Each structure stands twice: as structure tokens, then as C-alpha cells.
Amino acid sequence: MGGAGYEPVEVIENSKIGAITFVRTESLGNDASKARFVIYAHNATYDKLHQVATLGLTAAAMGKDVIVVLLFWTIKKLAEGRLNDLDFPPEYAAQAPEVARLIRERKVPLISDMFKEAKQVGQFKLVACSAGLEYMGVDAQAVNDSVDEVMGLPAILAACAGAETTLFI
After folding, report:
1. Beta-strand relationship, 65-70 and 36-41
2. What percent of the chain has pLDDT over 70?
3. Tens of pLDDT along 93-116?
4. How far is residue 28's CA from residue 46's CA, in Å, rounded to a whole number?
5. pTM, 2 dp
6. How far apart are CA 79 and CA 132, in angstroms?
7. Rounded to an integer, what distance in angstroms lies between the CA atom of residue 17 and that of residue 45?
8. What are the structural domains of the chain?
9. Strand partners, 128
């Protein structure tokens, strides 16, 4: 990816809803033939990862070029093989057993399966941040089979510049 062919963007609107920050951008001369959809995945509880997976899968199925950037806790959880764990934030501890039961009962697809499906139906890349690997004490080999690429922040920002949609979850 290395940044070739990507143009700078201008942030024209920021809004925050709950834990998700939406950034609307306008491309400054970028090729708009394939709209990029970027998700920066930082939070690793099931509820957040489920949103990353469903939004990424849906965007890929809609023909968008999807890049999911794994940061801190998502890298750690992936490396530990716990991506599909039904864990929830502490503030929802009282409801967690019931929600987990419903998810199993309704056979909601696994996070890892949704990532695989997204790659089958469209353009979908999982990228691990190299600094995140270092800071979380994760060897790149631990995630190598699960990600498409390990990249540093400059390469990540270049690859994601000009995205039609950027989410931080």
C-alpha cells in the first residue's frame, strides 16, 4: 500500500456518538473510483468488535475498499486467540449473561468468520499497527496468519487518507 496514489484530505466535520467518532472528509483530488471505508479498531470487547465486523462486512459487500486497522487491545485479543470471546464492558455486567445467551441462541456469526466472509465478498484488509504490537508486547508472528499486513503509522495514515468513511471504535 505504501501510500502511492493517495492524496491528502481535508476534515470538514467531526461528530461523536457514544464511543464512536465519525469523521467526514472530502478528498483533495483523490481517485474516487473505489470508495475507501476505514475502521480504526481500538476497543476489544465483543460489542465493539461485533460492530467492526458487521460494518466492515457490509461495506465490503457494498463494493467499498475496507481497511480495518487493529490497535492496542484488538491486537492483544487477536494474538491471544480470543477474538470471538463474548465479553462486555463492566458497565453492562448485569446484562452480559443474557446478551451472551441470545447471541449463542440466535447463532450470530463469529467475529473471525465475519472477517473471512468480508474477504470473500469484497475488498477487505486487516492491518495491525506495528507500534501497537510493540506496546502490547505482542510478537508479529502471533498475528501474522490473521492479518493482511503489519504497518507503521505513516503507512497506515497514507493508506487511509481520502477515505469516504472513517470510524474509530
Report:
1. parallel
2. 80
3. 999 999 999 999 999 999 999 999
4. 36
5. 0.80
6. 12
7. 18
8. 9-168 (3.40.1260.10)
9. 70, 150
